[in-house]
Amino acid sequence: MTNVKAFVFDAYGTLFDVFSVTKKCEELFPSKGDQISQTWRQKQLEYSYLRQMMGKYRPFSTVTRDALRYAVADVDAELSSDNEEQLLNAYKELTVYDEVPGVLKELEEQGMTLAIFSNGSHDMLDPLVKQSPLAEYIDHIISADDINQYKPTPASYTHALDSLELNRENILFMSSNGWDISGAKNFGFHTAWINRNEKPVEKLALEPDTIYSDLTGIKNWS
Amino acid sequence: MTNVKAFVFDAYGTLFDVFSVTKKCEELFPSKGDQISQTWRQKQLEYSYLRQMMGKYRPFSTVTRDALRYAVADVDAELSSDNEEQLLNAYKELTVYDEVPGVLKELEEQGMTLAIFSNGSHDMLDPLVKQSPLAEYIDHIISADDINQYKPTPASYTHALDSLELNRENILFMSSNGWDISGAKNFGFHTAWINRNEKPVEKLALEPDTIYSDLTGIKNWS
């Protein structure tokens, strides 16, 4: 049996469904929404990696805006400031996956510490959690932005650990992003990959401890 | 007038056309070749970024193999070791873009130092250059692998500089990869983005000094 005291969740794609952003893209850019939202997400990650490597850190809210501008330019469309604001605001109003509130409630009743740990800056994360049904269960909202780092650097996971005042072996980290699970595993957290899209394991020689298709799986975790 | 003494080129996609790899993918995995080669390239870059951030460096040849394995698994196909070897060997037999030999010849006649600077490890780069018509023009093959770094870290570009024994302002760096141009600009090289695919400029607040649609453009560079 492991001695887990805190369940730490990634936010985007793990607890919160970003599908509503895709929908909003399609609404504002008919027939181009899918491509825009895919490029947007890809560039959002890529820009965070590149900025980390170049030593040019900017908050995730800035990176998200820049990635959106690229994605719209990439399909030769125009992005008005009103549309830009609507799309960025959509990130603060995401819905949660169906099973999430029930699972979090159960874990809370078992006395577990529940935390979110995300690349998202607090200006994005705090309003998102506040408007969601998860607000009452989440004990800590931790952002890698507090120390100007992005996951998956070891320093970013160290920040989560320090914020929780626990040891690595007391943490179970959950994410739908394979690369995030690799980073957490590399750092020494217990890991559960929430593989919502039936993707292959990332070939980074850092296999997840457990894999579940959605968050209900972690109720069996031990 | 700038005082450029060395023309430094990225390899993959800049001098060498990776289309033949796509063709080989399609030959071995009919109807899935396009998707495999796209995912392969995307994961190849992503894994280099992630390994750099995690402090888990491996040579580009390893990362390229791992990315291929992911890409094939992602379309639920099987990768035999024979097919794997064929596809990895394709990277050592790439053709150059049509205009490249002529441009390099002209620059050499002007007494310029010509170098390749790539993430590719020497086991990939050296045979590639040797079998190409560029071998007679290239004075230096520099790999970021020599110091266990990946572009776009500042350390990687420092290595190119040290290898050439020049100052930053003596270098014109050319790449078809927008992120690579951002990294070189961030470091302080002169930059020319060879925008072969008519993509938007990366939104990283590091604009290229010049943009050309192919390599002939640099003949006008001053």
Automatic annotation (TrEMBL), chains A, B:
<dbReference type="InterPro" id="IPR006328">
    <property type="entry name" value="2-HAD"/>
</dbReference>
<comment type="similarity">
    <text>Belongs to the HAD-like hydrolase superfamily. S-2-haloalkanoic acid dehalogenase family.</text>
</comment>
<dbReference type="InterPro" id="IPR036412">
    <property type="entry name" value="HAD-like_sf"/>
</dbReference>
<dbReference type="GO" id="GO:0019120">
    <property type="term" value="F:hydrolase activity, acting on acid halide bonds, in C-halide compounds"/>
</dbReference>
<protein>
    <submittedName>
        <fullName>Haloacid dehalogenase</fullName>
    </submittedName>
</protein>
<keyword id="KW-0378">Hydrolase</keyword>
<dbReference type="InterPro" id="IPR051540">
    <property type="entry name" value="S-2-haloacid_dehalogenase"/>
</dbReference>
<dbReference type="Pfam" id="PF00702">
    <property type="entry name" value="Hydrolase"/>
</dbReference>
<dbReference type="InterPro" id="IPR023214">
    <property type="entry name" value="HAD_sf"/>
</dbReference>
<dbReference type="InterPro" id="IPR023198">
    <property type="entry name" value="PGP-like_dom2"/>
</dbReference>
<dbReference type="InterPro" id="IPR006439">
    <property type="entry name" value="HAD-SF_hydro_IA"/>
</dbReference>
